[in-house]
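Lab notebook, page 48
Experiment: co-folding of the full assembly
Goal: obtain a model of how the components sit together before planning crosslinking
Operator: M.T.
Materials (sequences as entered):
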Amino acid sequence: MKNYIIKNITQLVTCSGFSAKHGQAMSDLGLIENGMVIITDGIVTYADISTDQFPVDNPEDYEIIDATGKAVLPGFIDSHTHFVFGGYREEEFSWRMHGDSYMSIMQRGGGIYNTVQATRAASFEELKAIAQSRLDKMLAMGVTTVEGKSGYGLDRETELKQLRVMKALQAEHPVDIVSTYLGAHAVPEGYTEEAYIDFMLTEVLPIIRKENLAECCDIFCEKGIFSTEASKFFLLEAKKMGFQLKIHADEIVNTCGAELAAEVNALSADHLLQASAKGIEALARSNTVATLLPCTAFSLKEDYAQGRKMIDAGCAVALATDYNPGSCFSSSIPLTIALACIYMKLSPEEAVTALTINAAAALGKADSIGSIDVGKKGNVIILQYPSYKFLPYHVGMNCVEKVCLSY
Ligand code: NIG
Ligand code: FE
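Observation: model returned without errors.
Model output:
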């Protein structure tokens, strides 16, 4: 593990904090002018004003970086992706651009079912190799922790294969991976909703628990996929087994997914394009993070989630890419930031909070990542520019010059 002293930082953006930031608190980035960060054995041991004398025992063991003219931030956390999948769906994208809807393609046996076939057919090694190259691209854009979901098997073996790919990559790749079981992504052929939920609870989740293959459980709570009642039952059972909860909520139709997420104390409610005022209020009063995925709304040509309204109501908002082969084939952090600021009306400060400390909270990890605080993991990024304000301003472009990891 490498040790770093990053000195003369023109703008140190600490995002300091150990829990999700709600509402106005999202604007506080804990800025330090002329700052210095020291990372020792992968842990932040100093985050304060730059000094000439380094407060360490053996400075010769450190890589010393002069960050004059640069901003330093916590590594970005992409808290919602589906990056382990086989095949692509470029035909479906062009159909959508010509007026087909996401759901109608799925009802014809395409959509998620299309990727399920390709993922079942792919070998462990094939999936691992392609997933690894996807992680490399994320890292180049400053992502130091990524959440990845299963959900393209809908059977036992393929779902476990996806989760095992992530476990293997967690051991080998510098990007940290948090795994989520999303067997409840669609009901597979030959099952009723009830029978499939029973199958997941009795035949799949116990193995995942035993082999420690996932920390979280997610469900696609959506009209025509899993009902709100079935989602509640499934999530509460998964919680009893020790999983943290996440929900694909109110994406295409409002099904009171936001309210459900707050009620079951999920880590996050994700998408929320159709969340109602009541749903937003329920999230604002809860510990559940509202995770918004603007690249998906963009790719589906849907209206954006009401990010501004959510923050003004007191929600803790996170941003993520939703990288997947269907609704959003992009892991672009720059595009996510641009859309969040330009169309969802987040300020640059709020967008940074949403990709760091609030994204950490959406993974239940705000105590160990998401900010540059002494004691946290030493995952930091150095921008090519002197201010975080370049992130939305340099539209769609990667501002990250260097990533320092606790790997
Ligand atoms: O988050 N909405 C459900 N799941 C993904 C899309 C999955 C797919 O189309 O392959 C999403 O948008
Ligand atoms: Fe998703």
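Interpretation: The longest helix spans residues 193-210.
Next step: discuss with group before ordering constructs.
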